[in-house]
Design goal:
Distance between the termini: 22 Å
Helix content: over 70%
Mean pLDDT: 79
Shape: elongated
Low-confidence stretches: none
Structural class: mainly alpha
Number of helices: 6
Order of helices and strands: HHHHHH
Number of strands: 0
Length: 128
């Protein structure tokens, strides 16, 4: 069902990623490398938005969220490595920091909720 709590978590992640797509150019220096960086959160947000509608296929939903988690963590590490933590703190990049931390939290909460639903369905299948 789309009304599940994981759908809300995933929707907020997609909205946060869309906001990052809009806000990234204003926060970082516009160079050729940076101009392309803002498409990564948008791609992750679109993948997560598609994942919302796979509510009947929980195993595929879990795999896609694992993929997004890995890419999200890799992107976070790359971003901090490329631009340096001190440079990020000096310029006060709140949007990337918000995307990295809150986005990671939302993905983990959604993953745990889907896993919980899958365990519930398996336990009910055993009772039949």
């Amino acid at each position: 069902m789309i009304q599940r709590i994981q759908s809300i978590y995933l929707f907020f992640y997609a909205a946060l990623a869309a906001f990052c797509f809009w806000a990234f150019p204003a926060l970082v220096d516009v160079t050729n490398a940076i101009a392309e960086v803002r498409y990564i959160p948008l791609g992750l947000g679109l993948l997560v938005f598609i994942t919302i509608f796979l509510f009947s296929k929980r195993k595929i939903q879990l795999r896609l969220i694992q993929l997004v988690l890995l890419v999200h963590i890799a992107f976070s590490i790359w971003y901090v490595y490329s631009f340096g933590l001190t440079k990020m703190i000096e310029k006060i990049h709140l949007v990337p920091g918000l995307f990295f931390s809150l986005g990671l939290l939302l993905l983990v909460l959604a993953y745990r909720a889907i896993k919980k639903d899958e365990a519930l369905v398996r336990s009910l299948d055993r009772l039949r």
